[in-house]
Design brief:
The protein is an alpha/beta fold and about 325 residues long. Helices cover about 30% and strands about 30% of the residues. It has helices at about 10-20, 40, 55-80, 100-110, 130-145, 190, 250-265, 310-325; strands spanning about 1-5, 25-30, 90-95, 115, 120-125, 150, 155-160, 165-170, 175-180, 200-210, 220, 225-230, 235, 270-285, 290-295, 300-305. Strands 1, 2, 6, 7, 8, 9, 15 and 16 form an eight-stranded mixed sheet that branches.
Length: about 325
């Protein structure tokens, strides 16, 4: 029996497991497939909400708190594992919305400034990580910290005694713990009843083979983004498709994303599309992150519904869960 049982091995689950283990808890993490191979792997790695004025105060609070620690966090994980998450403060060039009334009111509230740019507003402090590498590093790191990772173990139901959750049931085995933390992203409502239902919002992305310097900053326009990686590759995303768990990619979307990139950077017109994939963001009906104790059962905590912001809120979300458990 573990102190904490974490359900879901994406960035939210692994970061929660890491934080709890560092606080001294014995932690078991279950994932229905392999850790870090779903939504967290598929995203862009921008450490900021795309248009933060569209989100609630909690999302912004968690984002600011995570931004403050990400550089040191990535450095520590790199030192401990030898895997470089490629944290880069590349800045974000926003080409639309930055001058709207809602945006200016938000920037006044949080004392946010930007540099004027010929194509929009440059937020120089925004950083990125290469999320597949961060996830690889996190998996090694939490194993080194004693977290027991069990993959291909899908949680099917809660184990409950006297209105207290004592573990979860999988196909082959029951797992017990003092506290259960649900971090199963878009799949959360498939096995757990939540008042604020969580559902998948599909996003398709491509990566282009290019050279360094073609794109210098993250570029955001009309809800889509262009992200320059350290090796010169360019990630372009993404769509918003409410189609359930349909992971198929579409050739029309592939062409549209490429067109979006080369219209803004003509040098990318003949860039080779190396990969095209889709992921499932965990969206909630309320549009808000679901973070806290379950309203009905004791010893059950929820850390899901982060939508497009799981990676950029993960460290602070994990810390909130730790505080709820250790201060109980």
């Amino acid at each position: 029996m573990s102190d904490c049982l974490v359900i879901g091995g994406g960035v939210i689950g692994m970061m929660s497991a890491r934080t709890l283990a560092m606080a001294g808890a014995s932690v078991t993490l279950l994932d229905q497939r392999e850790c870090g191979k779903e939504s967290s792997w598929a995203g862009g790695g921008i450490i900021s909400p795309l248009y933060p004025w569209h989100y609630d105060d909690l999302t912004n609070e968690l984002s600011f708190a995570s931004q403050a620690v990400y550089a040191d966090l990535c450095l520590q994980i790199f030192e401990d594992t030898g895997i470089n998450p490629q944290y880069i403060q590349s800045g974000l060039l926003m080409m639309n919305e930055y001058d709207s009334l809602l945006a200016t009111q938000w920037m006044d509230k949080y004392n946010i400034n930007y540099q004027h740019h010929a194509d929009g507003a440059l937020f120089i402090n925004i950083a990125q990580v290469r999320n597949p590498r961060l996830l690889q590093a996190l998996k090694v790191d939490i194993l080194n910290k004693g977290v027991n990772i069990i993959e291909h173990a899908q949680a099917n139901d809660l184990l409950i005694k006297d209105n207290q959750v004592i573990g979860v049931k999988t196909k082959n085995k029951d797992y017990f713990a003092q506290d259960v933390v649900v971090c199963s992203g878009a799949w959360s409502s498939k096995w757990l009843k939540l008042t604020d239902e969580v559902f998948p919002m599909k996003g398709q992305m491509i990566v282009l083979k290019s050279t360094k310097g073609v794109v210098e900053n993250i570029v955001l326009d009309q809800g889509r983004y262009i992200i320059p990686r350290a090796d010169g590759r360019i990630l372009v995303g993404s769509t918003m498709e409410n189609v359930g768990f349909d992971g198929r990619t579409d050739i029309g979307v592939k062409k549209s994303l490429h067109e979006f990139a080369y219209q803004r950077f003509p040098a990318l017109l003949n860039a080779k599309i190396e990969h095209h994939w889709a992921g499932f963001r965990p969206a909630s009906l309320s549009g808000k992150v679901i973070l806290g104790r379950h309203e009905q059962f004791e010893h059950l905590l929820i850390n899901t519904g982060h939508f497009r912001n799981g990676l950029n809120m993960a460290p602070a979300s994990a810390d909130k869960i730790k505080q709820l458990i250790i201060n109980a």
